[in-house]
Protein 1
Amino acid sequence: MASWKKVLVSGSSIEVAAITSSATPTISSIGSNYVTMIDPTTGYISKITSGNFQASLGQYAYTASADTGTPVIIGAADTLDVAGGTGVSTAVASAAGGADITVNLDYTGTDNFIDAATDLEGTAIATGDTIIYHDATDNNVKKGLVSDLPFSNNSGTVTSVAITGTDGIDVDSGSPITTSGTITLGLSNIANSALANSSVTVTAGSGLINGGTVSLGGTISVDVGAGTGITVNANDVALKNAGSLTNNTLPLWDSGNGQLSNSAVVQGTAGAVTTIDISNAALIVGTPSTPPGLVGQIVSDQSIIIEAGGLNVLAGDSVFAEDVTINGDLTVNGTTTTINTDNLLVEDKFALFASGSATATDGGIIVQSATGAGTAVGYAFGYENSVDRWAYQDSLAYNATAFGTPTAYAVTAEYAASTPPANPAYGGASGFGNIFVNTSTQEIFIYS
């Protein structure tokens, strides 16, 4: 199993593993039920096999046989004083060690065991509470529930209960009650005026008019408000001048008449997106030198600015004869990006590889060393996920998605003012060759 090994350098101390002796006793050789001690001569743990030992535990001393370990109290002639506490009438002075002492409850006086209890006088006693009592049948003290007492409350008796209904509440059955029973109530016609809220208020929202307060059972109308370009009919709401608008034609706003009308922009025949139809003509921007008549093309001698929406080329390759400057981000969704340039300048301080990975994976850079149609290979340096280390590999294919068998691994150096951790940060238990420096002791370790 790999571990950190100290590297001996000038000025460092030599450390060797501890030397053990086969004669050193183990726990199993001592056995059980023995007292152990450190032998000052050998430094080993030994057991007491004969005689007695003595240990001081508080005010008493105990001895035990080395064979049985049974404790015996020393000082049986010592005396013990017992002072009666609250609710206890016993008080003993100078009782001999080992003597029996009888403790009695205090039944008399103001400090008897009942008066010594928590004072809850004036607090109601529940029927489920427990009380103690003297049983005259056998002269023993026993406990019972308050509900077991032979008492009842006979201060009065209800002989009849009757209920009548009003304001929409009826008595369905059960009234009156002379001994016991149930009275059933029901609802009948409740007048709206008897309700706390006998009306509702309807508020017209955005685009609506009218509304107001109406009594329960009443009606009120809320109408659609007519606006600019909107016509409110008896049964519908319509766009003003909607009957003159042409299908698949982009409408425009006629501010003079407050309505929509047709524009010169219609939907192209090739797709569902509304476009300027140039299927029979060219769209001329500015005064280009190219003569008009290029059907289906956009011709311009000026910059074409697209302020929103972007430019979407659905088919065909695009060729730029001059320099191209992209002020925003460039996203390439293809499978291969080819840059045929002498110098590649990247301003970003950190480049992100394998950006589409949700978990750790292999990745790195390859310097080509051989060419071939689809067989280019090179020297690779990158992160090898299976061992969590940076690795080198000769002859890795340009389109590889993972390392094969790395040729070598990069060595890392860690340092701290402490001993090395269990494993290196890179490589873990497979981090062979990595170095750790204890900055406190100047010791150097290599993992092997």
Protein 2
Amino acid sequence: MAARRRRKTQRFLAALLALAICIGVLLANVIQAPGKVAAKISAGETALPLSLPAQAPDIKEAPLAGIAAAGSVEAAALSNKAPEILSNQSPAVAASPNAPILYYAQSGDSLDVLALRFGVSVSDISSTASLSEHGFISEGQLLLIPARLENTSDNLKLFPDAEVVNSPSALDFNLDSFIAQAGGKLANYQESVYANGVMTGTEIIRRVARDYSIHPRLLLALLEYESAWVYGTPTTQDGLYYPLGLHESGQTGLYKQLVSAAGKLGTGYYGWREGTLLGLTFPDGSSLRLAPELNCATVAWMYFFAQTRNQDAWREALYSDRSLLNTYENMFGNPWLTAQQYSSLFTPGMEQPELDLPFEYGIVWSYTSGPHAAWGAVDVRAALDFAPPADAPGCLPNSTWITAASAGFVVRSDNGTVVVLPSARVKSPTGVRAS
């Protein structure tokens, strides 16, 4: 009985093995050699290559060929349809055209001026912190401002504010030594200046920097950039008579050119600060709205170059490897690193002191003009004119006392000028008390 069961099991295994062999032979016939498969493909179809060509064809031009079941081969067309979004995917969110600009307040910013720059109303500007309609906004405070302007200039800040104006960073700058070591035309230059006599190149730089509050390093960089006066000698008559490239009638010579340049830098700087300058007009009549995120120093440069250059040359002077910034850094290093060593020009909580009319109570003076530019060349509002009581009209000697508009210290007095620094801003007073 047991022997009979073993024989049945052996016959079953033999039959199973024979069936497996038949299935293998059948599969071998279906999967033919590549050459035979290619022979069965119709003339209008293309089979996959056995090896990659030297340069793979564009996937859009390489249809796939597949082998169908039971020996039938059909070409599979490549679909160029966009992939469908799966149930667990979210479509990309498009930027809203109404998204506000995230603006971080700069030193000296105020709400009314920012509204002018961004082309919005004061009520359109918001912040997570409190905002005062008067006074300065804290530096670094985040503001949300509607994006209303189009086709503006680049918003890249090129230069720090403290390196345009004659700021504390100028105190440690040895102007005489720098000009002497540079050894260019400026080092040996002399010029007769009205009401000042003969002045050296160094004295002219110092006088313009002081009178127009423009940093002496910037004046030197501009002079070198425009005519190579600092390290070399101008190679043209134009560079000799117009060293700053400003060709106004009668403005020849170093002193008048520097005064004109300082005036244009100041007009750009303070015009942006007070919101009276919002765009540029170039010599060819074209115009450009200034990006509202810019700082005063960058606008000062932009305004200066817009007086003598059309837009292509203007961009080269500002942004190329032959820019003023490149010249400045070669002469004095990175201005932003220098500015970081000093406190901001405007600190939170700073307020203008209360000002009085500059004459004694009970004495009647005549208001004659203003507000207007303080030093003539800078086209910003900074002065009021009054005339003391007199027996005859005109500019005549007068013994009537004048008084300080605010308590402070006299820091300069010469050539008909008395400069008083309010006492609230003086840490170590060295001047004469004014009251």
